[in-house]
Design brief:
By secondary structure, the protein is an alpha/beta fold. The protein has 15 helices and 9 strands. The protein is globular and about 60 Å long. It binds flavin mononucleotide. The site of flavin mononucleotide (FMN) has 21 residues, from helix 9.
Length: 351
C-alpha cells in the first residue's frame, strides 16, 4: 500500500463549525476498519479515532491500525491514537503517522486498565502533570497538523484537573475528548458532566463530551449541560449504530428515527459478514460476534432473554437461531433507544 492509495486528507474545517460534532470513541478490538466501514452505513460520525496502539522503544506503526486509516472508505477523518510515555518514541511515531492521511495525532491519557496505567501510560499519566507538560510540549513541536488528547478528569481524584487543563491550553491542543470519570472510577458510577462543562469554559479548543451517552435524548441532555462542541460515543454506538444519525436528527429538531428489531437483525448480519473476510475458525467468529451481541442485547428485551441465551450459544447455527427467534418473531417492534435497566454488556466491568 502506498500513500497514493490512501484516502485523501479530509477537510478539517468542520472543527470550526458551531453544530454539534459527533465522534465514535476509540475502542480496542472494536474500532477497526471493518467496524468503522460498517457503522458508516447506518449514520456516520463526524470523526473516527483508531483504537490506541502502544508506543515504546521497539514499536513501529501497527499494520492493523494503519488499515483503519488507509482503507477507511467512510470519507470521514480518522485520528490516530497513541499510548505511551517515552517522549522520543512518541515523537518518532507521531512523525511516522503524519505521513498518512490522518485527521491528527491523538494521545491517550485515560486508559483505566491497571496493566496499562501501572506503566505510567494512558490514565497513569494523569498522576504526573510535569510529564504531561513535557510530552505535550515535544509533541506540539513535532506535529504540524492537529494534535488532540483523550483523557479522564483525574487519576484517583480531580485535584490535578485544572492543572492538566492549563497544559492542554498552553500546548495549543486542537481538540479534547473528555470522559467525565476518574481512572479509578473506571466505568462505574455517575459521569461528572459538571466537570466537562468546567473544561468547556476553561479551554480554547473544542471539547467532545464522553461517558454514558446512551441515546439521542441523552446526547441532547449532555450537550445542554456541558455546552460541549460535540459528543463522543463508545459503547452505545456498538449497541445502536444509528445513534449518530439520531443525534443529528435531534440536534436539528427533527423526529428521531425509530429502529425496528428487523433492522437490528440486519445489522447483526452485517457484523457477521464483516468477519467473514477473516479466515478464523467458527469458535472465534462466534465469540467475536458475541462481543457485539452483548451490547446489542441490552436493547432487545427487558427481561434479558436474548442476552442470556445468546451467551450460552456455542455454534453459529445456535447463535443465529436465537437472533431469529428473539428479533424476527416481532420484527416491527421497536429496538429500545436506551439499554433496558439492569442489563449490562460487560457485567464484570459495568454493573
Ligand atoms: C471495549 C472498550 C475498549 C476501549 N478502548 C479504548 C482505546 O483504545 N482508547 C481509548 O482512548 N479509550 C478506549 N475506551 C474508552 C472509550 O473510548 C470511552 O471513553 C468509554 O467507553 C466511555 O464512553 P461510552 O460511555 O460512550 O462507552 C474503550 C472502551 C471500551 C468499552
Amino acid at each position: 500500500m502506498t500513500l497514493s492509495d490512501c484516502i485523501p486528507v479530509p477537510d478539517l474545517s468542520i472543527l470550526k463549525l458551531p453544530a454539534a460534532l459527533t465522534a465514535l470513541a476509540p475502542m480496542q478490538d472494536v474500532t477497526e476498519i471493518y467496524f468503522m466501514n460498517t457503522i458508516a452505513e447506518y449514520g456516520c460520525p463526524d470523526y473516527f479515532f483508531t483504537e490506541y496502539f502502544r508506543v515504546h522503544g521497539d514499536s513501529g506503526v501497527d499494520k492493523h491500525i494503519l488499515r483503519s486509516i488507509t482503507e477507511n472508505i467512510t470519507n470521514r477523518p480518522v485520528f490516530a491514537q497513541m499510548i505511551g510515555e517515552s517522549i522520543p518514541d512518541l515523537v518518532r511515531t507521531a512523525k511516522l503517522l503524519s505521513q498518512y492521511p490522518i485527521a491528527g495525532i491523538d494521545l491517550n491519557m485515560g486508559c483505566p486498565a491497571p496493566r496499562i496505567y501501572r506503566k505510567n501510560v494512558g490514565g497513569g499519566l494523569l498522576r504526573d502533570p510535569d510529564k504531561i507538560d513535557r510530552i505535550l510540549g515535544e509533541l506540539r513541536s513535532a506535529v504540524a497538523g492537529n494534535l488532540t488528547v483523550k483523557m479522564r478528569i483525574g487519576f484517583e481524584d480531580t485535584s490535578e484537573f485544572d492543572r492538566v487543563l492549563s497544559l492542554i491550553d498552553r500546548h495549543n491542543i486542537d481538540l479534547l475528548s473528555l470522559h467525565g470519570r476518574t481512572v479509578k472510577e473506571a466505568y462505574h458510577g455517575a459521569v461528572h458532566y459538571d466537570l466537562i462543562a468546567h473544561a468547556v469554559q476553561r479551554l480554547r479548543c473544542p471539547v467532545l463530551a464522553n461517558g454514558n451517552v446512551s441515546s439521542a435524548a441523552s446526547a441532547m441532555a449532555v450537550l445542554s449541560q456541558t455546552q460541549a462542541a460535540g459528543i463522543m460515543v463508545g459503547r452505545a454506538a456498538i449497541r445502536n449504530p444509528w445513534i449518530f444519525k439520531q443525534i443529528r436528527e435531534a440536534v436539528a429538531g427533527a423526529a428521531v428515527s425509530v429502529v425496528t428489531l428487523a433492522e437490528v437483525r440486519n445489522y447483526i448480519d452485517q457484523l457477521y459478514r464483516m468477519q467473514q473476510v477473516r479466515a478464523v475458525p467458527e469458535k472465534s467468529r462466534v465469540s467475536h460476534l458475541k462481543m457485539y451481541l452483548n451490547y446489542i442485547g441490552q436493547g432487545v428485551d427487558a427481561a434479558g432473554v436474548f442476552l442470556r441465551d445468546m451467551r450460552k450459544a456455542q455454534t453459529e447455527a445456535e447463535l443465529f437461531g436465537i437472533c431469529d427467534r428473539e428479533l424476527l418473531s416481532q420484527p416491527d417492534r421497536a429496538f429500545s433507544p436506551e439499554p433496558y435497566q439492569g442489563l449490562f454488556a460487560r457485567p464484570s466491568c459495568e454493573a
